Amino acid sequence: MIGPEQRITPLEALRAVTSDAAWQNFEENEKGSIEKGKFADFVVLEENPLTIDPIKIKEIKVLKTIVNDKVIYEN
């Protein structure tokens, strides 16, 4: 049975879709973290998913999305 003991932390989840995902695709030199020389693809969120109640993460609003140094979405 799957239960609370199988959960990962918000930080582990964030890494799974950013730096760890880039590493798995051999793209860690171009993607996965915000560093000079890497693609500047990121979102600006209404709240910090690392500090709010994990149950409320799904309710966080995206305020802005930036891809290739350009704003492609702004709320």
What descriptive keywords fit this protein?
single chain, about 20% strand, 3-stranded antiparallel sheet, alpha+beta, about 80 residues
Give an account of the 3D structure.
With 75 residues, this protein is α+β, with helices and mostly antiparallel strands. Helices cover 17% and strands 20% of the residues. The chain has 2 helices and 3 strands. A hairpin with a 2-residue loop joins strand 2 and strand 3 (70-74). The mean pLDDT is 94.
Summarize the structure.
This protein is of the alpha+beta class and 75 residues long.
Instruction: Provide the structure class.
Output: alpha+beta
User: What is the overall shape?
Assistant: flat
Order of helices and strands: HHEEE
Q: How many β-strands, per DSSP?
A: 3
Helical run tally = 2
Approximate strand percentage = 15-25%
Quote the average pLDDT. 94
Spatial strand sequence of the major β-sheet? 1-2-3
- What is the radius of gyration computed over CA atoms, rounded to a whole number of angstroms? 14 Å
Largest sheet: 3 strands, antiparallel
Termini Cα gap: 40 Å
List low-pLDDT spans: none
Helix content: 10-25%
